[in-house]
Design a protein that fits this description.
Helicase, Ruva Protein, domain 3; globular
Length: 344
C-alpha cells in the first residue's frame, strides 16, 4: 500500500467510478481492482451511500458489505469516529484541558514531595507510559504523512488525558496500540474521543485492568469455540499443550495492531468499530483456520513461533476477511459460551 499511490489516487480530478451510480458496483468485484482504483471506488460508494444519510444507512446490509470490503484510507478516520459514536458526550475541548491538567500534575509531582507522595501511583503510571511509547512506535509503519515522533508525542498526550479522565481504569501497554491506530487516521482530539468511547463499551477493559478471573474465562471460552469450529486443531493443541493464553492474549490486548501487518490490522479495525468486540474472536478463529493445515504439522515450539510471527507472513487480506465473515460469531453466542464456561 504505497503512500505515493494513495496520493496519486487522491489527486484525480475526475474518476470513472464517480460517473457510475454507486449502487451498481458489486462489492465482490472491488477485490479485483488495483489499489488506487479500489480506494477511489470505495470512496465514491461510501460518500454516496453511507456518509450521506448516516443514521439510516450505516447499519444496513449494504453498509455491512462495505465495511467488509474495507473503509477507504482517506475516509477511515471519519468513518471510525462516526461508527464508535460519542455516547460519553466528550467535548473535544476537554482533551486540551486534560492534557494541561496532566502537565500540571507532573510539574507538581516533581516540585512537591508531599504532592508526589499523594499522587505517586499516577506519577509512576505516567512514567511507565513514557517508557513504553518509544518501544511501541517501531511496530507502526506509517500510512499517512505523519512522522513517528509526532504520533509518539500525541500517543503520550492522548493516554495522559485518558488517565486524567479515568484514573479508575489506569494504564495498560495495550492502550498504546489502540491510541496509535486512531492517531494514524485522525487528529489527537478526535482520537481521544474515539479511544475513550471505544474503551467504555469494550471487553478489552477486562484485559487492561488485569482482571485475572475474567481473562481466564475468555481464554476458556475461546478454547471452547476452537473445539466447535476447528476440532482437529483443538485436538492437536490439547495434545501439544498449546493453550489460548499463549497467543490469544497478545492478539487481543493490542486488538491485532501489534501482531498483523498494519494494512491488514486496519481492515480488521474497520470491522471492530462497526461490529464490536465479537469480531476480535472471529478474527482469531479465522487466523487459526487459515493456518490450520500448517499448524497440524508443527510441534509445540513451532506452533507458538508461527502464531507469534504473523506480521512476517504474507497474508491474503481479502481471504482472511472472508474467513472472518464466514465464522459468523454473534454477541449472543459469545455470551452463551462465557456463561457456560463460568458455570464449570
Amino acid at each position: 500500500m504505497g503512500r505515493d499511490e494513495l496520493k496519486r489516487g487522491e489527486r484525480k480530478s475526475t474518476s470513472f467510478w464517480s460517473s457510475l451510480w454507486p449502487g451498481k458496483v458489486d462489492v465482490k468485484s472491488i477485490e479485483q481492482m488495483p489499489f488506487v482504483d479500489r480506494q477511489e471506488c470505495l470512496k465514491e460508494i461510501w460518500l454516496s451511500e453511507v456518509l450521506t444519510g448516516w443514521e439510516r444507512s450505516w447499519k444496513s446490509e449494504r453498509a455491512k458489505e462495505l465495511y467488509y470490503a474495507g473503509v477507504p484510507v482517506m475516509l477511515r478516520g471519519k468513518v471510525w469516529g462516526m461508527s464508535i459514536g460519542n455516547d460519553l458526550q466528550i467535548d473535544q475541548s476537554m482533551y486540551s484541558e486534560l492534557v494541561q491538567l496532566a502537565r500540571d500534575r507532573r510539574a507538581q509531582c516533581a516540585e512537591d514531595d508531599i504532592y508526589a507522595e499523594k499522587n505517586r501511583l499516577l506519577a509512576k503510571t505516567v512514567e511507565h507510559l513514557h517508557i513504553d511509547v518509544p518501544r511501541t512506535m517501531p511496530h507502526l509503519e506509517m500510512l499517512q504523512d505523519q512522522q513517528p515522533v509526532k504520533i509518539s508525542e500525541n500517543v503520550g498526550k492522548v493516554l495522559e488525558a485518558f488517565l486524567m479522565l479515568r484514573p479508575d481504569i489506569g494504564y495498560s501497554q495495550g492502550m498504546l496500540f489502540l491510541s496509535s491506530m486512531f492517531l494514524l487516521y485522525m487528529g489527537p482530539e478526535d482520537a481521544f474521543v474515539a479511544f475513550t468511547n471505544l474503551l467504555d463499551k469494550s471487553r478489552l477493559l477486562d484485559f487492561y485492568q488485569n482482571s485475572a478471573d475474567k481473562v481466564e474465562l475468555y481464554m476458556n471460552a475461546f478454547a471452547q469455540l476452537v473445539s466447535e469450529k476447528l476440532p482437529k486443531l483443538h485436538g492437536h493443541f490439547v495434545k501439544l499443550g498449546v493453550e489460548p493464553s499463549m497467543f490469544l492474549l497478545n492478539w487481543l490486548m493490542s486488538a491485532y495492531c501489534r501482531v498483523l501487518p498494519l494494512d491488514l490490522a486496519s481492515r480488521v479495525w474497520d470491522l471492530f468499530v462497526s461490529e464490536g468486540d465479537t469480531i476480535l474472536f472471529s478474527v482469531a478463529l479465522a487466523i487459526l483456520e487459515s493456518l490450520q493445515e500448517e499448524l497440524l504439522t508443527l510441534d509445540f515450539d513451532s506452533c507458538l513461533r508461527t502464531l507469534s510471527q504473523l506480521r512476517k507472513r504474507t497474508m491474503d487480506q481479502d481471504a482472511l476477511i472472508r474467513g472472518i465473515k464466514k465464522i459468523g460469531l454473534s454477541e449472543k453466542r459469545i455470551d452463551d459460551v462465557l456463561g457456560k464456561c463460568s458455570r464449570k
